[in-house]
């Protein structure tokens, strides 16, 4: 059996209870060594066999999983954040299916929501936006043209840009050239929830300079969209209807506006 486990955003206590249990019971652990907090491996059994996948190909990872299955051993494939977000998990599952190896997936805390927690913000603000997008800009690999950063930001959604920390000049230039204001509020969080976390609140125009000043070239998420304005402006959103006294729900009736009690 192979258990895909989301390690969470970085802090060792942000792995799920289930993920921690599976990690502590595993015979074999294949972990994303360049991305996860390796202190998580302290949860492993002393006799567990550990493999750092940062230097491995899909074929080599699959071979380790197959050998473990042949020995009747349980494997944890430990991914950064959540396996479903830029985790290259589907291709591994397809290989396991070819080999008739059972698997399951334990979700994890992805970096963007750890960024929001660190900054104390909400991505879906009433009257501002009700959508949240996770994307990246092209680097060594392409992004479909219909999923361009310009298209997503133009919708007014909150946008979390992964895997693009070293491309902030291109990101800034592309959006400004597309007509977005240089003073658009932007935030970036490096290694959200780690002990050496760094938070930046700036503008689209100053983002590249701020990232360079802080020496941030990787492991950061950039946050864009009108909702990021809550960090620098007051009163940009309206109150939630869910908790408004004048709004009825399936659990309570709307209060009489004339009743001040």
Quick take:
The chain is α/β, with parallel strands linked by helices and 261 residues long. 25% of the residues lie in helices and 18% in strands.
Describe this structure in words.
This protein is an alpha/beta fold and 261 residues long. The strands form two sheets. Strands 3-2-4-1-5 form a five-stranded parallel beta sheet, sandwiched between helices. The chain has a five-stranded mixed beta sheet with strand order 6-7-10-8-9, with helices on both faces. 25% of the residues lie in helices and 18% in strands. The protein has helices at residues 17-25, 58-70, 89-98, 111-119, 149-154, 168-177, 207-213; strands at residues 2-6, 28-31, 49-52, 75-79, 103-106, 132-135, 158-161, 185-190, 198-203, 220-224. The protein has seven helices and ten strands. It has two domains: 2-106, Cobalt-precorrin-4 Transmethylase, domain 1; 111-231, 2-Layer Sandwich (Methyltransferase, Cobalt-precorrin-4 Transmethylase, Domain 2), CATH 3.30.950.10. The chain is globular, with a radius of gyration of 22 Å.
């Amino acid at each position: 059996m192979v258990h895909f486990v989301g390690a969470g955003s970085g802090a060792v206590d942000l792995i799920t209870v289930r993920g921690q249990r599976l990690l502590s019971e595993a015979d074999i652990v294949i972990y994303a060594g360049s991305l996860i907090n390796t202190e998580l491996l302290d949860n492993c059994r002393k006799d567990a066999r550990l493999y750092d996948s940062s230097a491995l190909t899909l074929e080599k990872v699959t071979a380790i999983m197959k050998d473990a299955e042949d020995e009747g051993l349980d494997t944890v494939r430990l991914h950064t954040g959540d396996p479903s977000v830029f985790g290259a998990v589907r291709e591994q599952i397809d290989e396991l299916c070819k080999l008739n190896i059972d698997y399951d997936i334990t979700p994890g805390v992805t970096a963007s929501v750890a960024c929001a927690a660190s900054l104390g913000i909400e991505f879906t603000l009433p009257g501002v936006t009700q959508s949240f997008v996770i994307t990246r800009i092209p680097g060594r690999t392409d992004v479909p043209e219909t999923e361009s950063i310009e298209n997503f930001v133009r919708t007014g959604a909150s946008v979390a840009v992964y895997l693009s920390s070293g491309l902030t000049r291109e990101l800034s230039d592309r959006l400004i050239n597309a007509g977005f204001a240089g003073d658009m509020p932007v935030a970036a969080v490096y290694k959200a929830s780690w002990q050496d976390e760094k938070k930046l609140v700036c503008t689209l125009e100053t983002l590249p300079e701020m990232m360079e000043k802080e020496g941030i070239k990787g492991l950061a998420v950039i946050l864009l969209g009108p909702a990021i304005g809550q960090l620098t402006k007051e009163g940009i959103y309206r109150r939630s209807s869910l908790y408004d006294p004048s709004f009825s729900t399936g659990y309570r009736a709307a209060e009489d506006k004339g009743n001040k009690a």
